[in-house]
Structure formats: structure tokens, C-alpha cells
Amino acid sequence: MKKKLLFCICFFVLLSAGCSHSSAPESAADHAVSEKDTITISSSSDTIAVQEEQTYNQLEDTASDTSQSSQTIAASEDSDVDYNLTTMDSDMVYATVFQITNHPEDYVGKTFQIEGIFSSSYADTLDRYFYYCIIKDALACCAQGLEFVLSDSEELSPEDYPAEGTEIIVRGTLEAYTEPGFSVSYGRLVDASYTFVSSEP
Asked: What is the structure's pLDDT at 12?
């Protein structure tokens, strides 16, 4: 009886040791896979972030180069505006507007003439309308809007502005401003005037 009991004890000890050894490699493998997945996900996120930053930087560089080019164009023409975007190609116009909207303080006091599509929106929190000239890039897949304020805006109502989607040419002086409660600086054309593209010779 003692021998049989001793045998049973030894059997269970060996069985427990075997289970312990067999489960260890599986746990390590699971840990390795989990760690690999974490590294892969982290690497993918880093790659996307880097790509987005590179794209933004490329557009910034293009806009910076375009800014210098547009100054040359404006200076070489007999015009009463500092930046005549109506004489630039679509890519240069889009890049210039990108530069203006991201760094309006660099263009304060400069006069602009731009061509685009009229659009408006109403801000409930500010209880006022915003009016824009929308410019698209060469592929017409992206668009940016430059806000403008007519010289006699206080006397005008939304009905006095063009219909949505109308092609217009806007001329005005750029100013930088902030909205109450926001620290972001925005750019807009003030003392502006507009004409319809169809009425241009």
C-alpha cells in the first residue's frame, strides 16, 4: 500500500513538472507575438506621422518659394496691387493662399487681387456671416478660402452679395485678426471690392 501511494505521488509530481515545462514556451511565444504586434503598430503610427509632417513641410517649402516668385511677378507688372494672384497658375495661387492663411502676419498691409468662387457661412456663436473667395488647386481636388470684408459691409446684407458659387475677382488689403476667446490669427481682405468674372474683358 505504501509503495502504491509513493508511486502515485511520484507520478503526480512528474506530471506537474511536465505541464509546467510545456506551458513556458507557449507563454514566451505569446509574449513575443504581442510585443511584435505592439512594435509594428507603433512603427506604422510613426511612419504615418512622419509622412504627414513631410507632406506639410513640402507644401510649406512650396508656399515659401511661391511667395518669393509671386513678389517677383507683382513687382514686374504695372499694377496697383502687391500680389495679383489672377496672373499666376493654379498651383502657385493655391500655395500662396496656403501661405497667407497659415502666416497672415507676414502679409499685413499688402494688397491682393484674387479670383475664385464666392461662398458664405453663418457662425451662430459669433452671430455674423463670413464671406470667402474659394480657390482650388490645379486638380480641383483641394480648396482654400480667403475671407474678405467689403468696404461698406456694415450697410450691406447677405442679399447684397453674389449668389453662392459665382465666379468673382476680389481686391483688398490683408489684415490679421483674432476672434474673442481664440489665440489663432486669421487673415482676411478688408476694404475689399469684387467684380464678376463674366464682366471682365
From this structure: 44
Look at strands 111-123 and 143-150 and give their pairing: unpaired
Contact criterion met (CB below 8 Å) for 188 and 177: yes
Q: Which residues of 6-18 are buried (b: 16+ CB within 10 A; e: fewer)?
A: eeeeeeeeeeeee
Q: Say yes or no to pLDDT of 178 above 60.
A: yes
Rounded Cα distance between 150 and 158, Å, is 12
pLDDT of residue 154: 86
Coil, helix or strand at residue 146: strand
Sign of CA dihedral 149, 88, 67, 134: positive
C-alpha count within 13 angstroms, C-beta hemisphere, residue 78: 0
Grade residue 49 by pLDDT with cuts at 50, 70 and 90.
low
